[in-house]
Amino acid sequence: MSRRRLSGRLLRCLPAVVVLSAAAGCFSADATPSVAVPSPPADEATLCHALHKALPKTLADLNRDDPEPRSELTAGWGDAAIVLRCGVPRPAGMNDPQAQAVEANGVNWMLEERDSGPRFTTTYRKTYVEVTMDTRFAHDSTPLAQLAEAVGRTIPLRL
Q: What is the pTM of this model?
């Protein structure tokens, strides 16, 4: 086979190799989970920055592993087993008088049951803090209790 013919075949195959390589990179087991970063007003963002500094390095025996893109408005533990977002909009469920709520060490949270695990959002605070957990925490409020001190100290009550 001539050299020219071989290089022509390689060039025709090159786009497929590039696409497959890029796709393989997207599915890497080492990929950091991604989460939407909230866009709160400036005064609420200031509260979130203070919370970010006060958050624990471990939560429910899981190490801190913040999601992408890195932001002082988000935090994560255990490869996204638990994800916190600060400055989220008020959830529509808070308008429901039948909404479920829990209290953990002085901080009140509205509970939303989801197939992927529970989502909790603080109530009566100057900004909303949302915590999502995977299904292993469906009946475990330990992470909320461990977050209560930081939330209570940095996110004041709405009066």
A: 0.80
The whole domain housing 8 covers: 1-31
The total number of structural domains in the chain stands at: 2
pLDDT tens sequence across 93-113: 999 999 999 999 999 999 999
- 131 shares a domain with 94: yes
Query: Distance between CA 106 and CA 102 in Å, rounded?
Result: 10
CB 118 within 8 A of CB 134: no
- pLDDT at 83 > cutoff 90: yes
pLDDT at 53 over 60: yes
